[in-house]
Specification:
Layout: E1 4-6, E2 9-11, H1 16-28, E3 33-38, H2 40-48, H3 50-57, E4 61-64, H4 67-75, H5 86-100, E5 104-108, H6 111-124, E6 130-134, H7 141-151, E7 155-159, H8 164-172, E8 180-183, H9 187-192, H10 200-204, H11 208-215, H12 220-223, H13 225-235
Helix pairs in contact: 2-3, 2-13, 4-13
Family: Belongs to the glycosyltransferase 26 family. TagA/TarA subfamily.
Pathway: Cell wall biogenesis; teichoic acid biosynthesis
Protein name: N-acetylglucosaminyldiphosphoundecaprenol N-acetyl-beta-D-mannosaminyltransferase
Length: 238
């Protein structure tokens, strides 16, 4: 399927299953794969920022992480039929790593967060190879690169916030042996049990943003990007 584009930002119309199936083929061919989550806020920023736009569009998969992208695709007669959230994509990739016996490396967040996330992932996916982890406060990047390569991990999850995590991936990928890269933002906090996800009721209706807003009213300014984005899509000619 052809990628959709919103104000110069590409979005992949693939489901979780289609992405996993494609990644499986790419690993067999020794091809690297990068995943970046796209939401209305990122589209609005990327439209004005050429460097951010190029960073997003250079990824293998730009997943539609946001109900606004789903609605925009419906408004424009696109093919995106469901959200593909960053944390759920990580879940699917962990399950894939468990089944295919691929090593996983976690990089980012505080020590107590990443270590607990690694522990909980090991419990949730028995037998998964947590090849290693490192907190986001390590000063020696060369030592980190050596640690990741020595671990033999095929999948690398980086939790540093966007776009910092994607910039780190792009800068260091040429020297890394891992094949699948995903910037996962605050997902380690979720796996560590430090942050609770919205109840399934909210997630099923695509209202996870509303749940977070009710919990954190200070997010209101960020959430204003959603109606602005939809209005722009509605009145755009293409």
């Amino acid at each position: 399927m052809k990628k959709e584009s919103y104000f110069g930002i590409n979005v992949s119309p693939y489901t979780y299953e289609e992405i996993i199936a494609d990644i499986k083929k790419r690993i067999r061919s020794n091809k690297t794969s990068t995943i970046i989550a796209v939401n209305p806020e990122k589209v609005m920023k990327g439209e004005k920022n050429e460097d951010l736009r190029e960073l997003i569009n250079s990824a293998t998969y730009q997943i539609p992480d946001g109900v606004g992208i789903l609605l925009a695709s419906k408004l424009k007669g696109g093919q995106i039929r469901s959200r593909v959230t960053g944390v759920d994509m990580m879940e699917r990739l962990l399950q894939f790593a468990q089944e295919e016996k691929h090593g996983v490396f976690l990089y980012g967040a505080k020590e107590e967060v990443v270590s607990k996330a690694a522990e909980n992932i090991g419990k949730k996916y028995p037998g998964i190879d947590i090849a290693g982890y490192q907190n986001g406060y390590i000063k020696n990047n060369e030592a980190l690169i050596d640690q990741i390569n020595a671990s033999g991990a095929k999948l690398l999850f980086v939790a540093m916030g966007s776009p910092r995590q994607e910039l780190w991936i792009r800068e260091n990928m040429p020297r890394l042996n891992t094949l699948v890269y995903q910037g996962v933002g605050g997902s380690f906090d979720v796996f560590a049990g430090h942050v609770k996800r919205a109840p399934k009721f909210y997630r099923k209706l695509g209202l996870e943003w509303l749940y977070r807003l009710l919990k954190e009213p200070k997010r209101l300014k960020r959430q204003l990007a959603l109606p602005q984005f939809l209005a722009k899509v509605l009145f755009s000619k293409n």
